[in-house]
Amino acid sequence: MRDEYDFSKAKRGAVISSPGKTRITIMLDDDVIEHFRAQAEAQGVGYQTLINALLRKAAVGTGKAKAEAKPLTVAMLRRVLREELHTS
């Protein structure tokens, strides 16, 4: 490595974006960041990658739960009430 570098003719380049990703700014508590940094270091991944994976899991899990949940009908409510009253 050199002791000094000449940046007098350097040009600032554009930030290379990742396809399918959006850069955002988000405020998180210091202890939350430290927690994810420690977990990420132990797993050998980046902490932002870990946070993204956990957010994706939570979002997909919520979507599946909503998709699988059946609406409560009057007939279903009556059946459940009969079963509960019968067992009491």
Structure report:
With 88 residues, the chain is mostly helical. It has a domain of 58 residues. 57% of the residues lie in helices and 0% in strands. The protein is built from three helices and no strands. Helix 1 crosses helix 2. The longest helix is centred in the middle third of the chain and has 22 residues. The radius of gyration is 26 Å and the shape is elongated. The termini are far apart.
Please summarize what this structure is.
This protein has helices at 30-43, 47-68, 74-87. The protein is mostly helical.
Strands, helices and their partners?
Elements: H1 30-43, H2 47-68, H3 74-87
Helix pairs in contact: 1-2
What are the main properties of this structure?
88 residues, mainly alpha, elongated
What's the tally of helices?
3
Number of strands: 0
Helix content: 55-70%
Distance between the termini: 82 Å
Estimate the global geometry from the Cα principal axes: elongated
Low-confidence stretches: none
